[in-house]
Design goal:
The chain is mostly helical and about 180 residues long. It has helices at about 5-15, 20-35, 40-50, 55-65, 75-90, 95-100, 105-115, 120-125, 130-150, 155-175. It has one domain (about 10-175). Helix content is about 75%, strand content about 0%. Helix 2 (about 20-35) packs antiparallel against helix 3. InterPro entries: DUF7010.
Amino acid sequence: MEFTLSQLRQSFEQRTNRSMSMPLAGTVFWSVVLGLSFVLPFNSALLVMLFGSGCIFPLALLFAKWRNEDFFMKGHALGKLMLTGVIMANSLWVLHIILLFVQPKLVPYSLALGLAIHWPLYGWIIQHSLGLQHLLMRAFGLFAAFMWLPLNSIAAAALVTVICYLITLIQMQRRVVDAGSPAL
């Protein structure tokens, strides 16, 4: 059976329960990174940031279970689109690793931005500007932090990312969602 894009979007909304688990996990991760950036030497904090970013996904799974989100959206076309976005974001690990060897102080900025690349896809699915707003806030915020924030690059990138997540989570929570008909 073929579904319209509108039906797919409505089903996505119902099954994902506002999709807040991943940004919640990201907020927790980047908050921990922010705190550690003030107590650990730069290289140690950098390694914690790089390897610790792998905990975002399992933490999001835990939040999804608590929030009753259908995290994987198996068999759903828009779930597959989101997976494509996550793959796009993860393909940037090549750049992060290259920067680690060439210019380690830039890695926090590349990682913080790279992990936000999929947000416009999410915004398109839910027909809300918050996805594009989140990416642009992070991009311009990271650039401003690089230029003018007198913190180490890990603290600067983490601070910008946490602020962006908090703003976006508020938008996600306050957004009016069309309840519509039962999920597909």
